[in-house]
């Protein structure tokens, strides 16, 4: 890999750049670190090519000034190609897929309490709050499963609310979408710490301006105080609906979409300028950025949560939001910290939104366990001219047809150096592979144009070794990823959970979050391409008649199988109505062979719910029923397929199906 990093000369000392001399006992002078303020600004669905950072057509002078004051990242990536998983990754510093948050649907119904024992440590705000930072979140939250139908009464007990994750103050929209104009019902909320609840607070102005004003007020009020501050300003612009200050009609005529979008981006840029101006003016002198301690010792980051809604917003990049192509995950990315990073720096290696939490924690002196976080402190690689990452990975289950693939398709990607590998797998098993050399000059003009992802090299023998290496690397990463589908979301057209497809039987929603199958033939429901090795799969199983039902693990389509057929490779673990045995079968090309049986305390009764669990560890398989181990078996040539699901030959109700490492 060729390092493409250009840094301005005159690098400041890491040990003294962010320090100030203070008088100590005996009039000695020592260097005492000054912890920086931190401002993170996140746009919503902002296209890579639609700012001044990379020569875009929309003039964004304030965002460009922020970048000129520090570092412009040419290869900055979001944690996911859609809103909720991306923001989850940014806030936690952890791949959203490691939470089982592979789509907007799963992220908004996140099963993990981010404050509980299963969390990998503090979130961004909690890490800074716990070392003395004043903290505020402004704008779009989208991490608590709140919808536009929720009311002030119903939002109070949702999980992972801003105040629980370390924010002293909050003002914004708790749901994932809102309208912008004063006459709209914007469903904004503010956190009232005295009352311990969220209050409905309708803005009397254009929503982006309301967010900018609140954020600027917080920055101006807290700059220069003894305690540093952390501001998380998460715009919902320029996300649809395309409403501007001058035009709020819904929807806009097609001819007006681009002009409205551009105005929304310019309004975001104005808001960035308003926040930076408040920071500059806090010391009572405007325009003294070179000597203003508030400006010099504040980290300001600007980025977007994912690619844009429309392909005309991505410039030369391929595709858009909802995909793992560059247009879906490559985003505007800039950071200033004048006390540490020289102005005019450009960094040409890949960085991720997952790097922000480690960067802020290191700057603040906040303890942070990085063992479960792939991010790094960006300051050393930027100043030292070295790569921050050897690879970045993504996993996303398509929850919108606009992504160009069927609903529920698994969209997998990894970039290592200049080579990027992608695989799309539909719910019925069709697989499409791509491999791109992002650094290759295809048209011979002396400038790499592989970033356009128009030249698929997956069939080129020259790239065979790279393809195998990236597949292995991605699978090693995905080994530890859970798949958590508690059957809470169902597709209106099929009655199936998002991301699943069925073969045989009639699958439908039962009471609560349960899934029911009525069948007199073998039936299964599967989620594809999870690529686990060691894993635990479990579900509640209740049979209603004669037959068997249970789990499919390590499943993949068999060599002779075609989409829609029942042929697969993997394992089946089944309970049998009226039998005191649980059976484990190995499935080869659709043919199941019983390889082990375990004895239960009593026969399986119809109408009784059993907790069935299959654990894969290396070549060993262990099966438990209601927490009691019933059988173990060792497979000398174990399957390590990429799907999980449920199987039944009897009418059965399933609940709380979980797959985890």
TrEMBL record:
<feature type="domain" description="Sulfatase N-terminal">
    <location>
        <begin position="36"/>
        <end position="366"/>
    </location>
</feature>
<dbReference type="InterPro" id="IPR024607">
    <property type="entry name" value="Sulfatase_CS"/>
</dbReference>
<comment type="similarity">
    <text>Belongs to the sulfatase family.</text>
</comment>
<keyword id="KW-0378">Hydrolase</keyword>
<keyword id="KW-0732">Signal</keyword>
<keyword id="KW-0106">Calcium</keyword>
<protein>
    <submittedName>
        <fullName>Arylsulfatase A-like enzyme</fullName>
    </submittedName>
</protein>
<feature type="signal peptide">
    <location>
        <begin position="1"/>
        <end position="24"/>
    </location>
</feature>
<dbReference type="InterPro" id="IPR017850">
    <property type="entry name" value="Alkaline_phosphatase_core_sf"/>
</dbReference>
<dbReference type="InterPro" id="IPR050738">
    <property type="entry name" value="Sulfatase"/>
</dbReference>
<dbReference type="InterPro" id="IPR000917">
    <property type="entry name" value="Sulfatase_N"/>
</dbReference>
<keyword id="KW-0479">Metal-binding</keyword>
<dbReference type="GO" id="GO:0004065">
    <property type="term" value="F:arylsulfatase activity"/>
</dbReference>
<dbReference type="GO" id="GO:0046872">
    <property type="term" value="F:metal ion binding"/>
</dbReference>
<dbReference type="Pfam" id="PF00884">
    <property type="entry name" value="Sulfatase"/>
</dbReference>
């Amino acid at each position: 890999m060729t390092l493409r990093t250009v840094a301005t000369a005159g690098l400041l000392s890491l040990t003294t750049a962010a320090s100030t001399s203070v008088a100590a006992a005996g009039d000695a002078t020592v260097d005492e670190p000054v912890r920086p303020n931190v401002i993170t600004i996140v746009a919503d669905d902002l296209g890579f090519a639609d700012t001044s950072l990379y020569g875009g057509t929309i003039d964004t002078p304030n965002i460009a000034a922020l970048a000129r004051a520090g570092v412009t990242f040419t290869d900055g990536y979001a944690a996911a190609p859609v809103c909720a998983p991306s923001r989850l990754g940014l806030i936690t510093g952890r791949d959203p897929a490691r939470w089982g948050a592979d789509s907007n649907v799963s992220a908004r119904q996140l099963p993990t309490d981010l404050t509980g024992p299963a969390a990998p440590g503090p979130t961004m705000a909690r890490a800074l709050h716990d070392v003395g930072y004043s903290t505020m979140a402004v704008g779009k939250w989208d991490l608590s499963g709140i919808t536009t139908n929720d009311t002030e009464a119903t939002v109070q007990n949702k999980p992972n609310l801003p105040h629980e994750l370390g924010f002293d103050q909050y003002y914004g929209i708790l749901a994932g979408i809102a309208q912008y104009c004063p006459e709209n019902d914007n469903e904004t909320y503010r956190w009232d710490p005295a009352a311990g609840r969220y209050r409905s607070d309708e803005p009397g102005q254009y929503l982006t301006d309301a967010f900018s004003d609140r954020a600027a007020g917080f920055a101006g009020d807290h700059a220069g105080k003894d305690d540093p501050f952390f501001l998380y300003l998460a715009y919902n612009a320029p996300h649809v609906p395309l409403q501007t200050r001058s035009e709020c009609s819904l929807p806009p005529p097609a001819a007006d979409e681009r002009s409205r979008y551009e105005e929304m981006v310019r309004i975001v840029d104005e808001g960035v300028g308003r926040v930076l101006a408040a920071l500059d003016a806090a010391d009572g002198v405007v325009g003294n950025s070179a000597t203003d301690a508030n400006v010099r010792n504040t980290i300001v980051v600007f980025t977007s949560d994912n690619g844009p809604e429309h392909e005309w917003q991505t410039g030369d990049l391929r595709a858009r939001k909802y995909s793992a192509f560059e247009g879906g995950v490559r985003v505007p990315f800039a950071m200033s910290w004048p006390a540490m990073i020289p102005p005019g720096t450009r960094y040409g290696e890949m960085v991720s939104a997952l790097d922000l939490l480690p960067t802020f924690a290191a700057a603040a002196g906040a303890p942070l366990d990085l063992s479960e976080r792939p991010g790094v402190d960006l300051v050393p690689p930027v100043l030292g001219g070295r790569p921050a990452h050897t690879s970045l990975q993504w996993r996303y289950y398509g929850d919108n047809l606009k992504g160009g693939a069927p609903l529920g398709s698994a969209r997998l990607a990894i970039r290592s150096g200049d080579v990027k590998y992608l695989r799309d797998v539909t719910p019925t098993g069709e697989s499409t592979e791509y491999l791109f050399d992002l650094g290759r000059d295809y048209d011979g003009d002396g400038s790499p144009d592989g970033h356009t992802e128009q030249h698929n090299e997956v069939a080129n023998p020259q790239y065979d070794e790279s393809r195998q290496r990236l597949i292995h690397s991605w699978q090693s990463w995905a080994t530890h990823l859970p798949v958590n589908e508690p059957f809470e979301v169902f597709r209106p057209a099929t009655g199936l959970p998002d991301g699943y497809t069925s073969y045989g039987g009639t699958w439908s929603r039962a009471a609560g979050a349960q899934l029911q199958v009525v069948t007199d033939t073998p039936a299964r429901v599967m989620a594809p391409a999870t690529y686990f090795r060691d894993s635990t799969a479990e579900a509640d199983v209740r049979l209603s008649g004669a037959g068997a039902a249970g789990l499919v693990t390590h499943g993949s389509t068999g060599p002779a199988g075609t989409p829609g057929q029942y042929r697969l490779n993997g394992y089946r673990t089944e309970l049998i109505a009226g039998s005191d045995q649980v059976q484990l079968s190995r499935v080869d090309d659709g043919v199941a062979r019983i390889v082990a049986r375990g004895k239960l305390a009593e026969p399986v009764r119809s109408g009784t719910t059993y907790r069935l669990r299959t654990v894969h560890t290396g070549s060993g398989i262990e099966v438990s029923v209601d927490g009691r181990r019933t059988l173990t078996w060792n497979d000398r040539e174990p399957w390590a397929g990429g799907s999980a699901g449920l199987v039944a030959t009897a009418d059965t109700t399933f609940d709380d199906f979980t797959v985890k490492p």
